[in-house]
Amino acid sequence: MENTLHAASHADKSPASATRRPALQKCVVPVAPTCFLLHANAGTSVKELSAYIREIAKTYHAYGAANITFIISDLHALQLGGFFMPDNQRAMVGELPIVLCYMFASEAGVVYSSNNSLRTLTYWAKYFAKEWAR
Predict the structure, then answer these.
(1) CA–CA separation, 116 vs 95, rounded Å?
(2) What is the pLDDT of residues 89-107, one digit of tens each?
């Protein structure tokens, strides 16, 4: 846990735009070692959020993490912005040997998916977007 908190503090000191950083920190909230609550709203830029997650992935990889899990709390804004599109998922990881995992939850249950299976990830994102819209 100490390494996780240390890695998170280093991820926050990147040269990216400081004006958007507080808003992005509210979107990506650490809840456990290598696990974050991902809460984007309608005003969140998916491009900036993806760049921020890429910084986090680089930092956590440097500290030895093999994967990072995100619990999705508001799928709608992410789905509309194209967050789960295969090209965006590939851009967030790049050449890093790290897996981004997602937990989608609804009243019907929880589904776990990762960016290793982009076709499945896109399917579950669309499915839960429809479920949550009900």
Answers:
(1) 13
(2) 889 998 999 999 988 876 7
